[in-house]
Design brief:
The chain has 298 residues and is of the alpha/beta class. It contains seven helices and 13 strands. The strands form three sheets. It has a six-stranded mixed β-sheet. The longest helix is centred in the C-terminal third of the chain and has 18 residues.
Length: 298
């Protein structure tokens, strides 16, 4: 019940963007960019992420970050995250200033819901070496949700992080944040995951997915989300529930692409070639399928 209400609210207040067969979108989530410490799970995939982003930038994709981009539960002071991943944010800045960045907030970066926090931390940054302040993502307006609407058919694709209605990560996010910041953050350094998180708790993850499928069935919409870290591309007999996966799998990241009215899920991996050279590779996991195949309006 809570999930349906929260998703309804997010849909009603969503940012709306139009697309057609010339549009290109790539969706990624759950980077959990941290401060470069041992608990920063993104560090191991930073170079792989940069390689993938360079591909999407050169090929004119709009980059949609589907929540939990920055790990603000573990490190609320964004300047330390910015310093740890300077090159990543320079790349995001390129997308932003070419009007090709859409940033959603999730539970781990819910502080982006506050315009004052965004203004203070994302508008500019202070270069300690030059002792100067520079524009950063000036004018950035993170949103909770996004609706892509097809110019010709009217089909709508709902995009949201996926924590909506997850009690511990939505209504009770603050005490959950404290447990992560002061306990589980340090456990991550030893490879121990929070069993209450949907990324490790199979029952909780499946419950979230069932609730999302109920919303899809009721509202007849294709849905893209993240949060569970479990990538998903529906089979023919399933409802159009898509999940981006995450950017913190060991040596790989996953993404959903929409291009020329087709959708597919891909993985970027580090692999050794026949000459023993480590290379980044893009592989299609599922797809590509026409977006219209997932238009289930009656």
């Amino acid at each position: 019940m809570f999930t349906q209400k929260r998703l309804d609210e997010a849909f009603e207040n969503a940012r709306v963007e139009y697309f057609d067969n010339t549009s290109k979108f790539v969706f990624m989530s759950d980077h959990h960019r941290g401060d470069g410490s041992h608990s920063d799970e993104f560090t191991k995939n930073q170079n792989l992420f940069m390689f993938a982003m360079d591909h999407y930038y050169k090929n004119d994709f709009v980059y949609v970050e589907v929540g939990d981009g920055d790990e603000l539960w573990e490190q609320r002071k964004f300047k330390y995250i910015k310093n740890a991943h300077y090159d990543v944010f320079e790349t995001l800045k390129k997308f932003f200033y070419h009007d090709r960045l859409i940033m959603l907030y999730g539970n781990h970066n819910i502080y982006l819901k506050d315009p004052e926090y965004v203004e203070k931390n994302y508008t500019s940054y202070y270069n300690e070496y030059r002792e100067q302040k520079f524009d950063f993502l000036k004018g950035l307006e993170p949103v909770e949700s996004l609706v892509l609407k097809h110019r010709k058919t009217g089909q709508e694709i709902f995009v949201v992080h996926g924590h909506q209605g997850d009690l511990a990560n939505d209504y009770l996010w603050y005490p959950t944040m404290l447990s992560v910041k002061y306990f589980w953050r340090f456990m991550h350094s030893f490879g121990i995951k929070n069993p209450a998180s949907p990324t490790k708790n199979v029952y909780k993850r499946h419950k979230i997915e069932r609730n999302f499928n109920k919303w899809i069935l009721k509202n007849r919409k294709m849905l893209i989300c993240g949060h569970t870290h479990r990538f998903k591309f529906p089979r023919t007999d399933e409802l159009p529930y898509f999940n981006t996966g995450s950017c913190i799998y060991p040596t790989s990241i996953t993404a959903i692409e929409i291009e020329e009215d087709r959708v597919q899920i891909v993985t970027w991996k580090m692999r050794v070639n026949q000459e023993g050279i480590l290379q980044a590779r893009r592989e299609v996991i599922r797809g590509s399928e026409l977006v219209g195949k997932y238009d289930i309006r009656e």
